[in-house]
Amino acid sequence: MKILVPVKRVVDYNVKIRVKPGGTGIDLANVKMSMNPFDEIAVEEAVRIKEKGGSSEIVAVSIGPAKAQETIRTALAIGADRGIHIETPDGALVEPLAVAKLLKSVVDAEKPDLVILGKQAIDDDCNQTGQMLAGLLGWPQGTFASKVVLDEGSVHVTREVDGGLETLKLKMPAVVTTDLRLNEPRYPSLPNIMNAKKKPLETKKPDDFGVDIAPRLKVQNTTEPTTRKAGVRVDSVAELVEKLKTEAGVL
Amino acid sequence: MMTVLLLAEHTNDALNPATGKALSAARELGGDIHVLVAGHNCRTAAEAAAQLSGVAKVLVADAPQLAHGLAEETAALIVPLMASYDTLVAPATASGKNVCPRVAAALDVMQISDITNVVSADTFERPIYAGNAIQIVQSPEAKKVVTVRTSAFPSVAEDGSAPIEETTPPPAAGLSSFETAELTTSDRPELASARIVVSGGRGLQSSENFKKFLGPVADRLGAALGASRAAVDAGFVPNDMQVGQTGKVVAPELYLAVGISGAIQHLAGMKDSKVIVAINKDGEAPIFQVADYGLVADLFQALPELEAELKKAGH
Ligand SMILES: Cc1cc2nc3c(=O)[nH]c(=O)nc-3n(C[C@H](O)[C@H](O)[C@H](O)COP(=O)(O)OP(=O)(O)OC[C@H]3O[C@@H](n4cnc5c(N)ncnc54)[C@H](O)[C@@H]3O)c2cc1C
Ligand SMILES: Nc1ncnc2c1ncn2[C@@H]1O[C@H](COP(=O)(O)O)[C@@H](O)[C@H]1O
């Protein structure tokens, strides 16, 4: 049993990002970066499967600039066994389709039984990569998972859907993407952080896999959203209802 | 002539309002629109789709393996159909998000997720970073796959009468199978399309309080109930009530946030509401920065008062 976990380095979820003047993008200078929160959940899930004796090896993969190695080290500290870094130029935007193609190459070489990704990267908010990877591999997919149960040659995935929950049975190998309720990721202990530095981490380039990472989409500009103007404070519930009726006209 | 394939969101016997909203976006692309209803015993949904204004044709694919919208089976149906279409459009619902990227990968194109505006047939607006930035993206690709943020588009009229045609799906791939569903039942309006949404956060403290304090207010207003992630994580309410960056995005006429601090991830799901009301005991809570009307109060006092006031006002 082998599990591959793709992890993305993104702007920390607590950071309020700034749009660069001139519509050219997001200001990432000196901004705190972290592992995409859904990917932490993915690593945690893989580690729990391993701890239950269900997995023999967890491989963390990240596609990104040199610093993406820090994200892989975090995955190793949580409990992944080794890392693969596919290095891309600083500032290069790698779209989900290119990520999925690179991951497919890694899957072809590593032959995992399960790939667990985050459902969504909180920077591009695309929610695509896992589904694309499953499609390219011709594997089944269990997206937005809130529960994963391994079985003989298959996996039962409970999914968060618009109306509630549904459970699917997928033949293995399979792709799973995580939702928020799957687990609560642990904080790596100091000894595990130290230990992670000694775990193997291999570096590759997109060219090694013959994958063209040039973006397909053209971003014409990036702007600030229109902000709401500050409203008023009301002193009582009666005043609130009155204002909603007469001023806002929504009651 | 450009043609658009719109993937319908439905429950086999009913069409989901998300379909009509995605159709609004599709209509802005120009060209003929065909709606695909993939399901099992889904004739009723297909007939409802045929009534949506601006649909040239409804394609029905009816087969047991399509009953539950499995991504593998639905994508296998759509990919060959795309030979005759320029663009695939779907609402950015749980099922649209599940199926579309699988189709895009098979077509070797980048999907444009969660569009909030159509600039032209190949150029779209979409939010990134929880809506803290808006991108205009152009797709030069021969085929396009687009998912639509339904809260950003109006519904269409139901005065159409498009012809319904059968299409035969490929044999079942059998990679996955449906086991069970635990769907939330409620007499309240659907969260995604409700005119008024009343949402509760961690401040509600328990599932009982949601029912006891928020429920009666929602009932008076005929509102849908929503929640913050913290309320869902704590088990106060089911997952499908989460509003936010990674939950549902809503834009009702009135959004009432009670005991919700207003984290950016929550704001991402409701800040396009027409009127926002916040009730929070902490006057510094960030939710007040987006609220049109803010009431600094203890919710356990304010909500019963609100219910009484609404009753007095005839609601
Ligand atoms: C990857 C990721 C995705 C996320 N996605 C989402 C998402 O989609 N949606 C979402 O909502 N969040 C999301 N979050 C979580 C988000 O960051 C916040 O943690 C969450 O929104 C907080 O919920 P809350 O406001 O209910 O809780 P808190 O922040 O704890 O706020 C509770 C509020 O209740 C008030 N309160 C307490 N008691 C009372 C009382 N008696 N009367 C009045 N007011 C009271 C307090 O003053 C406080 O402001 C996400 C986070 C991450 C990392
Ligand atoms: N550059 C990347 N490196 C590794 N994993 C990635 C990368 N981009 C996306 N992923 C994975 O794909 C998931 C969904 O990303 P997205 O489709 O961009 O929303 C993330 O949660 C990661 O698990």
- Quaternary status of these chains? heterodimer
Q: Approximately what portion of the residues of chain A adopt beta-strand conformation?
A: 25-35%
Strand numbers in spatial order across the main sheet of chain B: 5-9-4-1-2-3-10
Class by helix and strand content of chain B? Answer: alpha/beta
Largest sheet of chain A: 9 strands, mixed
**N- to C-terminal distance of chain A:** 58 Å
**Arithmetic mean of pLDDT of chain B:** 97
The biggest chain-chain interface is: A-B, 82 and 91 residues
Return the average pLDDT of chain A rounded to an integer.
96
What is the count of β-strands of chain B? 16
Helical percent range of chain B?
A: 25-40%
Return the CATH architecture of chain A.
3-Layer(aba) Sandwich
**Strand count, sense and closure of the main sheet of chain B?**
7 strands, parallel
**What is the CATH superfamily label of chain A?**
HUPs
Number of helices of chain B: 8
Shape by Cα distribution of chain A: globular
How is this structure best described in words?
Chain A has helices at residues 37-51, 68-78, 96-110, 129-137, 190-196, 237-246, and strands at 2-6, 9-11, 33-35, 57-64, 82-87, 114-118, 141-151, 154-161, 164-171, 174-178, 201-204, 218-223, 232-234. Chain A is of the alpha/beta class and 251 residues long. Chain A has a single domain (2-223), classed as Rossmann fold (3-Layer(aba) Sandwich), CATH 3.40.50.620. In chain A, helix 2 packs across helix 5 and helix 3 crosses helix 4. The model of chain A has no long low-confidence stretch (mean pLDDT 96). In chain B, the strands form three sheets. A seven-stranded parallel β-sheet of chain B has the order 5-9-4-1-2-3-10, with helices on both faces. Chain B has a five-stranded parallel β-sheet with strand order 13-12-14-15-16. In chain B, strand 2, helix 2 (43-50) and strand 3 (57-62) form a beta-alpha-beta unit. By secondary structure, chain B is α/β, with parallel strands linked by helices. Helices cover 27% and strands 27% of the residues of chain B. Classes of the chains: A alpha/beta (251), B alpha/beta (315). Chains A and B meet through helix 3, helix 4, strand 7, strand 8 and strand 9 of A and helix 3, helix 4, strand 5, strand 7 and strand 8 of B. Strand 13 (232-234) of chain A pairs parallel with strand 16 of chain B. The structure holds flavin-adenine dinucleotide and adenosine monophosphate (AMP). Flavin-adenine dinucleotide sits between chains B (201-203, 228-231, 242-247, 259-261, 263, 265-266, 269, 280-282, 285, 298-300) and A (13, 37, 122).
